[in-house]
């Protein structure tokens, strides 16, 4: 759906990048009379994460229209004396309750519904190991260290689905905003023309020993579910409502109240989220007007035919309002929780590689390609600019069985071997 100014508050596209891990240090202890002391290079710090946090006092995603790139800090390099580098600064993106996080392929990653809920959306890269960690009987003074790993980065789409107990639906001008103002503490805009409500407004309706949250959803117009009007975008906000109050303009200026009721119900059914099967209370509004009173008995009779008992109300005078609230509370007491968006992609950002034997195959040009997450990662992080680093890498190839398999496959000195982004010439006695 294309972005329009009308839905800036409940849609956002953001880019997130976690910090890179700091590089490990290759340093040696300085001691009097000892030219080369033991290795003492510390590890790099971890890159900062980017995380999303649900806040109760936020009601829109508007703030993400202006800032939509979130880049966490890099880890600092390790230092001598085995000192670890500082971790990178994390970044936290605050969003309202009810925010659903999608990846670029529109898979649901997270549904943030609890105050304070935090989800990591980009994990910082690990710091590289310093040379102190490579000390062994073979490498007593290892001159090698690992570079920090890159952090995750991705594009995300955020969508707000308001959390309310009851959603007010109905044609523009039916009196939804007036009704919410009448029954709750909310003060939505009321105006005698359609589309006054450009974003949903939540109101708390207090009853003697309980309360309910009611959302004023912008007016639906016919064809809304096909994207003809604004309505389709707002139907999403009704998805989390356990019950609906369907407000009908009883005065029947443009169409009879029954026609209005049917048109909206058709939109609810076309939306595809099961909105038509939510408990629905029909509020026949503007009963204070003579035109409405003339329509009422025919409307009520038609509704009863369909096993639905409408309530005649007036947002203007307050008539019927307490009955409406009781009916809504009663429906809520029995209504099941609506289904929540279920993660469709595993929220595992960097799955731990399953330890399988490295895979080996030949490229068209004859190069030997080795597929192995651990070795590919090592190839990325190891700077092969010292003989110790080359030596270490060779030993890892030996230990993982790659060397033997290359030989068995007939690799000869001078053949190209590819591991991730690293390409090198095979030598029988090492790199
Ligand atoms: N007479 C009368 N007018 C109403 C009543 N409820 C709403 N209105 C009027 O109908 C128009 C549309 O109301 P509004 O609440 O903005 O409708 P919405 O588009 O459904 O939110 C406004 O001019 C209201 O003053 C009512 O119970 N009686
Ligand atoms: Mg309104």
Characterization of this structure:
- The chain is an alpha/beta fold.
- The protein folds into three domains: about 5-160, Distorted Sandwich (Spo0b-associated Gtp-binding Protein, Chain: A), CATH 2.70.210.12; about 165-335, P-loop containing nucleotide triphosphate hydrolases (Rossmann fold, 3-Layer(aba) Sandwich); about 360-425, GMP Synthetase, Chain A, domain 3.
- Helices cover about 20% and strands about 20% of the residues.
- It contains nine helices and 18 strands.
- The chain has helices spanning about 65, 175-185, 230-240, 255-270, 290-305, 320-335, 375-380, 385-400, 400-410, and strands at about 10-15, 50-55, 70, 90-95, 100-105, 110, 120, 155-160, 165-170, 200-205, 210-215, 245-250, 280-285, 310, 360, 370, 415-420, 420-425.
- The strands form four sheets. A six-stranded mixed beta sheet has the order 10-11-9-12-13-14, sandwiched between helices. A five-stranded mixed beta sheet has the order 3-1-8-5-6, with no helix packed on it.
- The protein is elongated, with a radius of gyration of 32 Å.
- The protein starts with 10 loop residues before the first strand and ends in a 6-residue tail after the last strand.
- The relative contact order is 0.11.
- The model is unreliable at about 1-5 (pLDDT under 50).
- It binds guanosine-5'-diphosphate (GDP) and magnesium ion.
- The site of magnesium ion has 6 residues, from α2.
- Magnesium ion binds near residues 176, 177, 188, 197 and 216.
């Amino acid at each position: 759906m294309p972005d329009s100014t009308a839905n800036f508050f409940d849609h956002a596209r953001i880019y997130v990048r976690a910090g890179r891990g700091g590089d490990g240090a290759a340093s040696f202890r300085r001691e009097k009379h000892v030219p080369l002391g033991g290795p003492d290079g510390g590890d790099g710090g971890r890159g900062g994460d980017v995380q999303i946090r649900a806040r109760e006092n936020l009601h829109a995603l508007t703030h993400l229209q202006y800032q939509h790139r979130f880049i966490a800090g890099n880890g600092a390099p390790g230092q001598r004396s085995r000192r670890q580098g500082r971790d990178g600064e994390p970044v936290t993106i605050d969003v309202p309750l009810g925010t659903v996080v999608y990846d670029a392929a529109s898979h649901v990653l997270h549904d943030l519904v609890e105050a304070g809920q935090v989800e990591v959306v980009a994990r910082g890269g690990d710091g590289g190991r310093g040379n102190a960690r490579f000390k062994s009987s073979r490498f007593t003074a290892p001159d090698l260290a690992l570079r920090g790993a890159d952090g995750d980065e991705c594009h995300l789409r955020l969508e707000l689905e308001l959390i309310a107990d009851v959603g007010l639906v109905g044609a523009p001008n039916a009196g939804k905003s007036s009704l919410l103002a009448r029954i709750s503490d909310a003060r939505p805009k009321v105006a005698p023309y359609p589309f006054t409500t450009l974003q949903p407004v939540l109101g708390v309706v207090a009853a003697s020993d309980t309360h309910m949250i009611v959302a004023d959803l912008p007016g639906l117009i016919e064809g809304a579910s096909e994207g003809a009007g604004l309505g389709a975008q707002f139907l999403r906000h009704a998805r989390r409502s356990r019950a609906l109050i369907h407000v009908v303009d009883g005065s029947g200026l443009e169409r009879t109240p029954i026609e209005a009721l049917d048109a909206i119900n058709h939109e609810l059914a076309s939306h595809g989220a099961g909105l038509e099967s939510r408990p629905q209370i029909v509020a026949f509004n503007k009963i204070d007007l003579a035109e409405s009173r003339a329509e009422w008995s025919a409307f009520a009779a038609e509704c009863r035919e369909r096993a639905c008992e409408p309530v005649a109300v007036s947002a203007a005078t307050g008539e019927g309002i307490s009955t409406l609230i009781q009916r809504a509370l009663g429906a809520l007491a029995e209504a099941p929780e609506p289904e929540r968006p279920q993660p469709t992609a595993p929220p595992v950002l960097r799955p731990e590689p399953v330890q399988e034997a490295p895979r080996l195959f030949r490229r068209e040009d004859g190069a030997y390609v080795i597929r192995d997450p651990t070795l590919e990662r090592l190839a990325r992080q190891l700077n092969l600019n010292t003989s110790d680093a080359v030596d270490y890498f060779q030993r890892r190839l030996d230990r993982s069985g790659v060397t033997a398999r290359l030989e068995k496959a007939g690799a000869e000195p001078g053949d190209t071997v590819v591991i991730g982004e690293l390409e090198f010439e095979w030598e029988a006695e090492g790199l």
